[in-house]
């Protein structure tokens, strides 16, 4: 049965890390410009498979992660990421009420851009907030490796001074709205998120461990790239070890040590998460996806899919 490929990897996404950055995509779950007045505050609820970002272009605010140790001050020139969709509060003064932001009235400008006007009294802050979707398996692996909160200010820009310039452009678009302003702001948001993650990858020692650290290992990184490039291939531990010029036992041990799980378990998870992506985003049936991933029956595929994802493929398709 002929079906579309699971992942189309072009020249720009040949390694798993570039692939992960490539598949971070803005889906318009919540992307808005906010005008905030008086003693304002909002609560952003937990959203699975979403990465939130916040930019203050005028005024200031405090950002507090649920179960976090302390609040973080955000001001113009600061860019904040909440990578795991964790619920958090943003407020202009401590003690302010923080209603659910999704319950507040918003003006919809386009499919993926809104304006929130909240609070009473004098203007306190202008902000841009957005939600980046990370439901693709490559993006999920990358986002899972990030800390609960990343905050970038001028002290962290270093040779990324142009990032500060982008924040200034975003602030200008808010102060002097023009035709097409929402398009500029959303595209700048996409670029800033990817660049902030790239900066973390290049500068934070934590980026040398776990899945990301494994990608930097010459042999294990090559094995992961092979799995990602051809997830439906009938891989074996022996076959992958041969591809990266290692013995079976040495390869298996190093893979488990760096990734934190056995090779075949990683391959199965990767296949099922790719299958989930196909079911969500392609017009195909569960039976066709089962065949595409090498399963002889839809029932066997469904059992493996539910074991990995916690949901049946039919539920994902309906969603």
Helix and strand arrangement:
Elements: H1 16-22, E1 25-37, E2 41-44, E3 50-58, E4 61-65, E5 72-74, E6 79-82, E7 88-91, E8 106-110, E9 113-119, E10 123-133, H2 137-145, E11 150-152, H3 154-157, H4 161-175, H5 181-203, H6 210-215, H7 218-229, H8 237-243, H9 248-259, H10 263-281, H11 286-292, H12 298-309, H13 313-318
Parallel strand pairs: 1-9
Antiparallel strand pairs: 1-10, 2-7, 3-6, 3-10, 4-5, 4-7, 6-11, 8-9
Helix pairs in contact: 1-2, 4-5, 8-9, 10-12, 11-12
List keywords for this structure.
single chain, disordered N terminus, four-stranded antiparallel sheet, alpha+beta, seven-stranded mixed sheet, elongated, 319 residues
pLDDT below 50 for ≥5 consecutive residues: which ranges? 1-13
**Radius of gyration, CA atoms, in whole angstroms:** 22 Å
Mean pLDDT: 82
As a percent range, the share of strand residues is: 15-25%
How far do the termini sit from each other?
Answer: 25 Å
Question: What does it look like?
Answer:
The protein has 319 residues and is α+β, with helices and mostly antiparallel strands. The protein has helices spanning 16-22, 137-145, 154-157, 161-175, 181-203, 210-215, 218-229, 237-243, 248-259, 263-281, 286-292, 298-309, 313-318, and strands at 25-37, 41-44, 50-58, 61-65, 72-74, 79-82, 88-91, 106-110, 113-119, 123-133, 150-152. Strands 8-9-1-10-3-6-11 form a seven-stranded mixed β-sheet. The chain has a four-stranded antiparallel β-sheet with strand order 2-7-4-5, with no helix packed on it.
């Amino acid at each position: 049965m002929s079906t579309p490929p699971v992942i189309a990897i072009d020249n720009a996404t040949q390694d798993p890390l570039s692939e992960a950055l490539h598949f971070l995509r803005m889906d318009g779950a919540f992307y808005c410009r906010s005008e905030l007045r008086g003693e304002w505050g909002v609560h952003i609820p937990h959203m699975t498979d979403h990465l939130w970002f916040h930019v203050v272009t005028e005024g200031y605010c405090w950002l507090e992660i649920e179960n976090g140790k302390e609040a973080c001050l955000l001001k113009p020139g600061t860019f904040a990421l909440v990578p795991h969709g964790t619920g958090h509060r943003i407020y202009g003064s401590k003690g302010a009420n923080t209603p659910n932001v999704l319950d507040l009235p918003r003006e919809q400008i386009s499919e993926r851009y809104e304006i929130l006007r909240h609070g009473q009294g004098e203007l306190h802050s202008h902000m841009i907030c957005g939600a980046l979707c990370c439901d693709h398996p490559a993006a999920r692996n990358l986002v899972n490796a990030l800390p609960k909160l990343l905050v970038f200010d001028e002290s962290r820009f270093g040779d990324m001074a142009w990032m500060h310039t982008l924040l200034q452009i975003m602030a200008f678009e808010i102060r002097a709205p023009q035709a097409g302003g929402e398009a500029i702001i959303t595209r700048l948001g996409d670029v800033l998120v990817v660049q902030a993650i790239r900066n973390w990858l290049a500068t934070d020692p934590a980026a040398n461990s776990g899945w990301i650290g494994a990608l930097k290992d010459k042999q294990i990184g090559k094995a992961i790239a092979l799995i990602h490039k051809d997830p439906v291939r009938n891989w074996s531990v022996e076959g992958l070890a041969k591809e990266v010029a290692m013995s079976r036992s040495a390869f298996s041990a190093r893979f488990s040590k760096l990734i934190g799980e056995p090779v075949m378990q990683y391959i199965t998870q990767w296949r099922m998460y790719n299958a989930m992506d196909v079911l969500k985003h392609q017009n195909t049936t569960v039976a066709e996806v089962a065949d595409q991933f090498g399963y002889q029956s839809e029932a066997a595929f469904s059992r493996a899919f539910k074991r990995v994802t916690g949901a049946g493929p039919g539920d994902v398709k309906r969603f």
